[in-house]
Predict the structure.
Amino acid sequence: MVTVQPEPHGVTLKVEDSGPGIAAEEYSRVFERFYRVGGDRHDSNQLGCGLGLAIVQHIADLHNARITLGTSSLEEGLLVSVEFPLTASQPGTDDA
């Protein structure tokens, strides 16, 4: 499920699934390039190389957005929230 919510100082994009989720102690690691929960021996039978959330983090950084992870409201899955500010300063510039 994908939702977009207006907020007083920006907009929040939320993506939720009903998959196996991610343990809270792994939240910081899943943003590392090539990291996969369970390593190459996980039982999802899904191909991948562990770049998805690293790419999301890079895009969020470019827009001064903040990412949080949590538990989905859909069974046991993952909730990814990306909070975009109304005005994003460019990297290397000062906000007045």
Q: What stands out?
A: The first helix runs from residue 52 to 62.
